[in-house]
Amino acid sequence: MPAYHYVHDVMLRDCEPSGIVFLPRYFEMVHTVIENWLDEALDWPMSQIQGSDGLSLPFVNISAEFPSPSRLGDRLTWRLSVRELRRSSIWLELTGTTGADTRVSITGTLVLSEAAALRTRRWPDAIAERVKDYLVAPSATVEKVAE
Amino acid sequence: MPAYHYVHDVMLRDCEPSGIVFLPRYFEMVHTVIENWLDEALDWPMSQIQGSDGLSLPFVNISAEFPSPSRLGDRLTWRLSVRELRRSSIWLELTGTTGADTRVSITGTLVLSEAAALRTRRWPDAIAERVKDYLVAPSATVEKVAE
Amino acid sequence: MPAYHYVHDVMLRDCEPSGIVFLPRYFEMVHTVIENWLDEALDWPMSQIQGSDGLSLPFVNISAEFPSPSRLGDRLTWRLSVRELRRSSIWLELTGTTGADTRVSITGTLVLSEAAALRTRRWPDAIAERVKDYLVAPSATVEKVAE
Amino acid sequence: MPAYHYVHDVMLRDCEPSGIVFLPRYFEMVHTVIENWLDEALDWPMSQIQGSDGLSLPFVNISAEFPSPSRLGDRLTWRLSVRELRRSSIWLELTGTTGADTRVSITGTLVLSEAAALRTRRWPDAIAERVKDYLVAPSATVEKVAE
To answer: Which entry of A85, B128, C24, C105 is 20 to 30 Å from B80 by CA?
Structure first.
C-alpha cells in the first residue's frame, strides 16, 4: 500500500500521569503527520493553504481505535494513506505502530474550504494529481475527482 | 435524556490560525468534561482513580463528527450521557452545542484498567450505581453490569 | 492588594508522567486567567480584541518561579494584579497557590498591537480606566497612561 | 559557543488565531529541545530518567523574552547551552531563531529530583561529564560539580 511515513518519539508532552499517551495528543500527532505530508509529499504547506491560498482544511469527522497504549520513549511510526479523494474532501487512513504493535488506527475526512466562509472548494488539479500517489485503491477514486 | 452538563468558552488555546477550534482541543474538552463528571456526578475524582485506587481509565475507541466549526469566544455547552455500562468499560456519548447549533458529536469507550498492567477491572459497585443515572436507556444495561 | 481571582483544578491534561504539572501547562493556565480577566473584569473579550478591534495582545517577556510542584487534583487559586500600565503595554503579576502553598509566581508584559503589523497601539481609554482597579500601586502609574 | 541544535517548523498546533505562536507552545518546544538533548547528547533519555532511574527533572524557574513573533511555517532553529552545572541543578540557555531574527531567548533552571519525594539529587558523574561539552564557560563550573 502506498503510504507516507513519519516517525514520532513519545515525549513528556504526550503523556499523562498514568504514564501512557493522553488521547488528545494522538490527534496532535495526526495533525503533524498530515501537515508534513501536505508539505513534503504534496508540496502544499499549510502556511500556503491558509496564507496566500486563503483556504482551510478542517476535519468533519474522525474515528480512532487504540488497541494498546503507548508510553514515554516509544517510537511511533505513522503511516498515512488516502482511502478516497472526493471533489472537495479527502478520506484519510492513519496508523501508528511501535514494532509489530499497532497503537492507534484512525480514519477521518478533511474538507477543503474557503477560510472566510467555510464553503467547500474543489481540489486544485495539481494537488489532486499528487494525492493519487497515496491512494489505497487508485483506480476506484480517479473518476470521482474527475467528476 | 439524563445528561451531565458542562460549559466551556472557546479560548485562544483552543483555536488555530484559521480562527476555528483545532481538532485535538475538542478532545481535551472531552477529557475535561469526563473528569468533571467523574468528580462531580460520580464522586470519583481522577486523582483518586489514578492515586489511591491504582487504576486508569483510557479510551479504546472514539468517533467524532463536526457538523459546523466553533470559533474564539463561542460558548460550548457539553452534554454527557452513558450509552452502555459494561463489566469493565463504559460507552459514552457527548455533544457540544452553541445555541441550536451542534458543533461536535462524539461517542467513545473507556476501559477501567489496573494502572500497572493495563488489565481490565470490574466497576466498583458504588460507581456502577451512580453511572446508571446517566444511562440513555437504563433498563437495557443494568443486567450487563450485574453479569 | 486588588486582584482578580480564578480557580483551576489540575486535570490529566496538565500533568506529565512523574505526576506533576508540566511546565507549558502553567502558561496555558496563565493565558486562561488573563483571557477571563479581560472578559469579566475589563469587559473586553479576546474575541473582540482579535475580532472587530483587529488587535492582538502578545507577551514580549515572562518570568516564572515554581517553589513547589502541583499534582493531579490540586486546586490552584490564581491571583492577577497589574504592576504597571504603560502607554501600549501592561506589566502583570500572577500567582498560583494551593492553600498556603505558592506553586507558581509569574510576572510578564503584554503589548497591545495591531494584528496585521504587530505595531504597538495605545490602550483604549475605557479599558485603561478599568485596568486601574487592578493596579498594585495605582497612583504610581496613572500618570504614565495619561502621557 | 558549544550548543545543541534542534530545528522545529511552526505548525498549526503552535499558533493561535492572530497567526502567531501561542506563548505556551514555545515552552513545549523548549521541553522538546531539552528532551532531545538529554537523549542524543547525554545518552540519558527521559524514559530512563523517569523510568528505571526513578528521577524527575522539573523546572524551578524560567525567564523568556520574545523580541519578535513567529508564524505558521517559520523554521525555528533552537540552540541549547549550559550556563552553569550545579550539584543537583542545571542552568540552561536556549534561543530560537529564524534566519538572523531572534524570536525567543530563554534561561531556566532544572533540578534533579527523586520522583517520589521531589528531593534533590546529585548528578550522576557520567552525565555531569557529558554536560560539560555544552557549558558556555566550562572552566568556571567544573569545580562546582566536583564539590
So the answer is: C24
Answer for the pair C108, C92: CB distance below 8 angstroms, yes or no. yes
Residue whose C-alpha is closest to residue D22's, from C121, C62, C14, B68: C62
Query: C-alpha angle with apex A94: B11 to A90, nearest 5 degrees?
Result: 75
Residues contacting D74, CB < 8 A, separation 6+? D9, D10, D98, D103
Other C-beta atoms closer than 10 Å to the C-beta of A120 total 14
Residue by residue, what is the 3-state secondary structure of D101-119? EEEEEEEEEEECEECCCCC
Q: Cβ of B73 under 8 Å from any chain C Cβ?
A: yes
* Three-state secondary structure call for residue C139: helix
Tracing cell 478542517 back to the chain, one arrives at A58
Identity of the amino acid at C48: Q
Residue D33 in contact with residue C65, Cβ under 8 Å? no
Asked whether B17 and A13 are in contact (CB, 8 A), the reply is: no
Interface ipTM? 0.89
Closest-CA residue of A relative to C20 is A17
Q: What is the DSSP letter of C16?
A: -
- A 10 A CB-CB count for A40 gives 12
Spell out the SS3 assignment of B84-134: EECCCEEEEEEEEEECCEEEEEEEEEEECEECCCCCECCCCHHHHHHHHHH
In the DSSP assignment, the letter for residue C79 is: E
Rg of chain A on CA atoms, in Å? 16
In the block, cell 486567567 appears at C33
Between positions 77 and 136 of C, the ones with CB within 8 A of B are: none
Instruction: For residue C59, list its beta bridge partners.
Output: C110
| Burial (Cβ within 10 Å: 0-12, 13-18, ≥19) of residue C122 | exposed
Please give the grid coordinates belonging to residue C24.
507549558
Q: How many whole angstroms separate alpha carbon B30 and alpha carbon D102?
A: 37
Alpha helices, DSSP H, located in chain C: 23-40, 46-50, 125-131, 138-146
Calpha distance D18→A88 (Å, rounded): 26
> Which residues on C lie below 8 Å from A70 (Cβ)?
none
Length of chain C: 147
pLDDT in tens, chain C (147 residues): 589 999 999 999 999 999 999 999 999 999 999 999 999 999 999 999 999 999 999 999 999 999 999 999 999 999 999 999 999 999 999 999 999 999 999 999 999 998 766 788 888 888 888 888 888 875 444 444 433
